[in-house]
Amino acid sequence: MLLGLGVTLALLFGALHLLRRLQGAQAAKAGALRVLSATPVGPRERVVLVAVGEEVLVLGVAPGRISPLHRLPLSALPSVPEGTPATPDFAAKLRQLMERRRDQ
């Protein structure tokens, strides 16, 4: 009976590991959208920067609703080397990008 339980548990863990790897492969293929940054602005609302092709969308996200707030070219964002952690001051970065866009 213990041998049967061990085999069953091993099969469950193996299936879970395989499922996680398959989901990771699907997420890597879906590279059309990338969430660059997000910050909460309320208990259930947040502002999100999403890269779509050569454009960056600033979206307001709330339960049951997503509203476009602004569009920027991808080149307007400062280049950040890979592996660099995101800056915690999202509001200042967003303000700087909006001012730069307004000046153009």
UniProtKB/TrEMBL annotation:
Q: Give an example GO biological process.
A: bacterial-type flagellum organization
Main localisation, per the record?
A: membrane
How is this protein named in the record? Flagellar protein
Q: Which family does it belong to?
A: Belongs to the FliO/MopB family.
Q: Report the locations given in the UniProt record.
A: Cell membrane; Bacterial flagellum basal body
The lineage's top-level taxon is: Bacteria
Does Disulfide bond count among this protein's keywords?
no
Q: Name one GO cellular component term.
A: plasma membrane
